[in-house]
Design brief:
The protein is about 50% helix and about 15% strand. The site of magnesium ion (MG) has 4 residues, from α1 and α13.
Length: about 375
């Protein structure tokens, strides 16, 4: 079988920490490959290297026989590699249909799409995509109103609209209900009929639903490869998965979700916001780099889910917990400039926390000093 992807001796060194370590990987054309591994194993970094977001320290990536490592992201995308990130990136204020039309036209001019000038063939393409992702009935609803799982399916549809030869999908079911997990699984299986597909996943149950050939990553290297049965019964795999106690307590997780609701308020989870959450939490919880690797991986999953704020603040009991929630939340919205939607959610948070206004202003002023202006 012809290989669509060949990766040799790949290492990515972040200031002395090897997120990928001498990794070798091959995948055939038309294959559906699932990559699993504990949080911090290097799965997202692996995709970052393939798409050109991160440059390898050593090693090579070949796509359809051609070396692509070192190329910038837009060139890799143009060669036919499409990627879906862990957190959905759809246009909240456009309808489902408009989002798909835009994606179909991304390589062309976007203006005709926005002003209604879509051609007949493209309309047919959008209709069949709507069918594939199971959102025909919601075609004219603003993306902002979709459930999290529906957004994931929409984004997978937007990816397919660009007709890539290789699709990369990062943890598509984190934070989804069981029913939505199954929907997304079936969608990926349907796409695998006509695409080469890499699906990164942490949830073993889901992997069982879709997996054929599985690669297990651990500490930046391939731990083992095989079908689901072989992998599941491999003592090395059992050991790394069992050894993976969560680094975050339920209380801390709750805090993360409150901060995430702030960042999600405008439907856009900015990288600056993610960075604030990650760096504040790792300062608080751990210094160890392997631990931090795991924490960051877990965070990506928690941030993807989106619970109503009241449910989250209800569980804060002591004043100290409330203050910590306030500090983290305010810093998250400050990190990339507070906008109107974020400010509305923040006001709700203040109402629910019920801390004295004077105290709130003092905490805000401290954080304002750090961010200036
Ligand atoms: P996974 O997706 O398997 O959970 P990641 O690839 O996200 O793991 O992360 C692997 C490790 O690399 C983590 O320790 C993470 O902190 C680190 N890492 C990822 N990106 C960067 C970066 N840009 N700079 C420094 N460290 C990074
Ligand atoms: Mg990841």
């Amino acid at each position: 079988m012809e290989n669509i992807l060949e990766i040799e001796n790949l290492t990515v060194n972040f200031d002395g920490f090897k997120a990928l370590n001498n990794l070798t990987f091959r995948m055939g054309k038309g294959e559906l490959r699932v990559i699993i591994g504990p949080n911090g194993a290097g799965k997202t970094t692996f995709l970052d290297v393939i798409t050109g977001k991160v440059k390898p320290t050593t090693g090579k990536v070949k796509f359809k026989g051609k070396t692509i490592s070192g190329l910038p992201e837009h060139k890799v995308a143009r060669l036919g590699i499409g990627r879906k990130f862990q957190t959905p990136r759809v246009y909240q204020n456009l309808t489902v249909r408009e989002n798909l039309d835009l994606a179909c036209n991304r390589h062309k001019n976007v203006l005709p799409t926005l002003f209604g000038g879509t051609k007949a063939t493209e309309r047919t393409q959008t209709l069949s995509l709507l069918e594939t992702i199971g959102l025909t009935e919601k075609a004219d609803i603003q993306a902002a109103w979709l459930a999290h799982g529906e957004k994931q399916r929409l984004e997978i549809g937007m990816l397919v609209a660009q007709s890539p030869d290789l699709l990369l999908v990062d943890e598509p079911v984190a934070g989804l209900t069981d029913e939505e997990t199954e929907n997304v699984g079936n969608l990926l299986l349907a796409l695998a009929e006509s695409h080469s597909l890499i699906v990164i996943e942490h949830d073993m149950e889901f992997v069982r639903q879709i997996a054929r050939q599985v690669t297990v990553l651990h500490q930046g290297s391939v731990l083992c490869e095989g079908n689901m049965n072989q992998v599941q019964n491999d003592p090395k795999v059992i050991e790394v998965y069992l050894g993976e106690a969560p680094t975050v307590t339920p209380e801390q997780m709750n805090l993360i979700r409150i901060a995430a609701s702030m960042a999600w308020a405008d439907g856009n989870f900015a990288p600056e916001q993610k960075q604030v959450i990650f760096s504040r939490l790792s300062e608080q919880f751990t210094n160890d780099s392997q631990h931090q690797a795991q924490l960051q991986g877990e965070l990506e999953n928690y941030l993807a889910s989106n619970l109503p704020l009241e449910q989250l603040t209800d569980t804060l009991t002591t004043e100290n917990e409330k203050i910590t929630a306030l500090k983290l939340s305010y810093e998250v919205i400050r990190a990339n400039g507070v906008n109107e939607l974020e400010s509305i959610v923040y006001q709700q948070l203040l109402g629910q926390l019920g801390l004295p206004l004077e105290m709130v202003r003092e905490i805000e002023a401290e954080i304002d000093q750090v961010y200036g202006g």
